[in-house]
Structure formats: structure tokens, C-alpha cells
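pls read this stuff:
=====
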Amino acid sequence: MTIARTPLRVRFETRRRELTVVETHRLTPHMQRIVLTGDLSGFQSLGFDDHIKLFFADPETAEPVMRDYTPRRFDVTAGRLTLDFALHGETGPATAWALSAQTGDILNVGGPRGSQILPDGYDGYVLIGDETALPAIGRRLEELPAGTPVTILAEVESDDDRQTWTTRAEADINWVIRSEGQNLADAVMRLELPSGDIHVWVAGEAQTAKALRQILTDRGVDPKSMKAAAYWRRGTAGAHEPIE
């Protein structure tokens, strides 16, 4: 039986903050990790898939541009914010900045405007996404209570792009490798969905996320127990939008 649940929505007062790079390293061939510190007083991020605005100057036009990124980790005591940048084939302003970032560089951020917190008590969770979803998936795994059943489908370019996550949850992590001819649609079709009352979370390229949502709905997942979002759109400079 599916139990009706409503996510808790929390709103925050937002302001623009100036942060400084204190650490940067290549996490995998297609993921750059940047750790920042600075004006983080009052910063809050309660949802694993929150997003903040990052402000850049376009490398070609110098015009200001904004991109949405998930706070991968926020250490209140240390006053450090960790962001992971998925490195796409085309070098946009965010990727260009992440690749060249050095200790002492400045980044302006805004938000998050709020958090959407899933209610507890589901029998299990399913998290599905490509590289752009990995920061949220990794954060979710770290934050889930001990023993929580969770199934992961994570699509990456190569075997070297797998990440190692720390979790107390009972996690079944499945990597989908594009260079080996694998894709999320086929993986979702073959996925043995957990039994009971589950919540499914999907994020990635817009058309792919929309198709995955339809496949899952056709397989019997209650749309009210599913959240799907476009984290990017093929051929578009930037996109972040829910898929209903």
C-alpha cells in the first residue's frame, strides 16, 4: 500500500556570498571537487538535492551567467562548502572555472532559496541519475539513516568515473557505463524495483529524465512518490527544472 506523504518545504532568506577556494582536486576523470570557505554565516541546506546559484563571467563575452549546483557537503563547524563539478565535453563557464580554479580564487554564490525534505518511513528509496546527479546521490547516501534500503543507478562515461561513497544505509549501487554501450533507460527497464512503499528520485538530462519517469510510471511507480528533475538539457547552455 502506498501511503500519501507530502514533502516538507522550508524557505530561506537568500543573499549573495563571496567565497574563497581552499581546496581543489580531480575526484574522477569527469568530476572536479572544489572546497570553499568565507561568508557562510547563516547558510542552510537541509535537502540532499538543494541547489545554489553560482555566478560566473562568460569566458567569451564576459557577460555574467548563473548556473545551478548541488551543495555536495556543508561542514558547519569548519565553515566549508564542497561542490562537485561534472566535466562535460563542451567547456562552459562553470566547467572552465572549475578546471582553472586555484586556492585563493573567488566564487560568488546565492541561495539555496529553500529545501524540500522527504518524509521518513518509506520502505526503500531508488536514486537514478547521470554525472550531474552524483553530488546529490552521494550526499543522500551519506545522510540516510543506518539500515535504510536504497538502490542506486548511476550513469557515467567510463569505469574510472565510479565514485566511492560512505553510507550507513543498505545500499545496492549499480554503475551504468556509457562507453560500454549501457544507458539508464535500459537499466531502469531491467531494474528489480524494491518491494513495498518506495520513493524514486531521478535527475539528469531533460529528455532522458522525462523518459525515465515515464518508464517508471509504466512499471507501476506512483507518480506521487517520484521526483524527476532536469539538471541539464542537451544543446542548451543551462537548465534546472522539475519534470511533472
Observations:
- The mean pLDDT is 93.
- Helices lie at 93-100, 134-143, 184-190, 206-218.
- The CA atoms of residues 49 and 215 lie 22 Å apart.
- The chain is about 15% helix and 40% strand.
